[in-house]
Design goal:
By secondary structure, the chain is α/β, with parallel strands linked by helices. It contains 24 helices and 14 strands.
């Protein structure tokens, strides 16, 4: 039996055991499939299980996707990652991802990303599709990665035929197979990578302030082999998260695919920066060094490496033997501060995800310790913990940004900027009591979003309004207890938490009811159910609802007492 399959099966069952509230289906096989989906989403996006749970949409009439991750990118670009999962209970047999599932995924892309197309959906999937279409109607260009998860083999020729018939030459859609062996890399990513690299031609090795560095030239085929062997395990300290297609990746692909231009790839690319604990090579050799490396990590150029790997994999007959790029390798031992400084400096021109970089910030360390004193586990660093009972820093940032920092319209789609652009706004002067309360409010609202309301006015906005409702609930709690946010500390944490637990249903109902009235005024109609979900979703991305109503003292006092 495949050992990787056994490990993943064990992990899946552990997820079921540790998170009983997520698996309410009476069919144990469906719960097992959902747990595999959850692990697959977490592994592919390189996030915690707790964060991955909010992207799950599986169920009847799911539209052909089981999970969806949506993020607003630069230059009016929308990156969407869709997932379809097939889990086999038979660990002895290897089977291909079904061709009919590929066909269904192809049809899903055609329908979801065409605002005029009709598609039958369950409420969770409808929410995601309406969000995507609202962006498209606002002029955003979608780039779609469809991830096919299974614990078996990729799709066969028939499945590939469906993809090529629909999207050959189409740069906006990309299909990826992600299986149990890929998930193992996610689980094992903390293991040190000890390997060797072959440099081409002459290289330079210098010593600076007790730090050694090599500057050299490396073949893209060497990078391909490195990524093929270790995958994202090389990118643990890389602070950029790959979210899909962008103009930089496009340029790399086009250059590599062009037979004439690829020879000059070295001059077109900024190269990659790596760090290690120790490197060694034959200093008596003038050129073509083989460098042996302990604890290798890529800290800048992760997107370049991924794109090189994917392009070479998709073009097996092309000759890349004379294609090179610049490599900078630092020997930095275990100096975490130096590693962070180098990482920040080499990524600051286009920052995406700084969570790991900020994980050793004093604010994060204090939150971890003080949350523990309150009885909660705060995860300032990414890991592969299997329980949703912990509080990842990403979830905390999302909740605090919406609830206490009064930015619910930004909290949903600006996740990539929480630990960079908005870091101080979110975490400065934030204590653990405020953080935990915000997370409980946010999770309560997000959980209610998934349930159907018989009130048509409320149901019209419920799938899209959870960030705003969380903000309204937080504001109500402070108002009812006659507290300012600064007054909320460890001293009155238990009292505030008890008030929330006792009154949350009332507070939520009040917020939902007033939101329905607010939207009726905003859209000048008493029939919210007649308004297209795309229009309502778009309204919650803008700040005018917040400014005209929720931050308006006169409106608040008249409606929320």
């Amino acid at each position: 039996m495949d050992i990787a399959k056994q490990i993943i099966d064990q992990r899946v069952k552990k997820i079921l055991e540790d998170n009983p509230t997520l698996f309410t289906n009476s069919d144990p096989d469906k719960n097992l499939s959902k747990a595999f989906l959850l692990l697959g989403v977490a592994a592919y996006l390189d996030i915690d299980i707790a964060e991955a749970s909010q992207f799950i949409t599986d169920g009847g009439s799911d539209g052909g996707f089981d999970a969806a991750y949506i993020v607003e990118a630069q230059d009016a670009q929308l990156n969407v990652v869709l997932f379809q999962s097939k889990y086999s209970r038979n660990l002895e047999k290897d089977s291909n991802f079904p061709a009919n599932a590929i066909e269904k995924a192809v049809n899903t892309v055609r329908c979801v990303f065409d605002p005029a197309a009709h598609i039958e959906l369950n409420p969770k999937s409808r929410e995601k599709v309406d969000e995507i279409r609202s962006f498209i109607l606002d002029g955003f260009i979608p780039y779609v990665t469809f991830v096919m998860l299974n614990n078996g083999l990729p799709w066969g020729p028939e499945g590939e035929h469906h993809i090529q018939n629909a999207f050959a030459g189409q740069e906006q859609v990309h299909f990826v197979h992600f299986c149990h062996t890929d998930m193992i890399r996610y689980i094992k990513r903390t293991e040190p990578i000890n390997t060797q690299l072959s440099l081409t031609g002459k290289a330079i090795q210098e010593n600076f302030n007790y730090t050694r560095v090599i500057l050299g030239r490396i073949s893209v085929t060497e990078i391909y082999e490195l990524m093929e062997t270790y995958g994202d395990g090389l990118l643990e300290k890389n602070i950029r998260r790959y979210l899909g297609k962008n103009t930089v990746n496009d340029g790399i692909v086009q250059t590599l695919q062009n037979e004439k231009k690829r020879q000059n790839f070295f001059f077109f690319n900024n190269g990659i920066t790596m760090i290690c604990e120790k490197f060694s090579y034959n200093a008596l050799q003038e050129q073509n060094w083989i460098v042996k490396i302990n604890r290798l990590q890529i800290i800048n150029g992760g997107q370049t490496c991924r794109t090189i790997h994917q392009t070479l994999k998709e073009n097996p007959d092309a000759d890349f033997s004379q294609v090179y790029l610049l490599i900078l390798l630092y020997e930095v031992s275990d100096d975490e501060n130096l590693i962070q400084d180098i990482t920040y400096a080499t990524n600051s021109q286009n920052p995406v995800d700084f969570r790991d970089l900020k994980s050793n910030d004093e604010r994060q360390i204090l939150l971890e310790k003080s949350a523990q004193d309150l009885g909660y586990i705060y995860k300032r660093k990414r890991d592969n913990a299997l329980s949703t009972n912990t509080i990842p820093s990403t979830v905390a940032a999302e909740a605090v940004f919406a609830v206490w920092r009064e930015q619910p319209h930004l909290a949903k789609y600006r996740r990539s900027e929480f630990f960079d652009k908005y870091y101080l706004e979110i975490f400065n002067q934030l204590n653990a009591a405020q953080m935990v309360i915000a997370v409980f409010i946010f999770r309560y609202c997000d959980n209610n979003r998934k349930h159907y309301s018989p009130n048509e006015q409320i149901q019209a906005h419920r799938p899209y309004s959870q960030y705003f409702l969380a903000y309204m609930m937080g504001k109500q709690i402070l108002q009812k207890l006659d507290l300012s946010l600064n007054d909320l500390t460890h001293k009155n944490f238990r009292r505030v938490m008890e008030y929330f637990e006792t009154n949350r249903d009332i507070l939520y109902h009040t917020a939902e009811t007033q939101m329905a009235e607010l939207l009726s005024d905003y859209f000048n109609t008493h029939q919210l159910r007649e308004i297209d979900g795309r229009t309502i979703a778009a309204a919650f991305r803008r700040f005018d609802i917040l400014e005209r109503y929720l931050k308006n003292k006169t409106w608040w006092e008249a409606h929320m007492k």
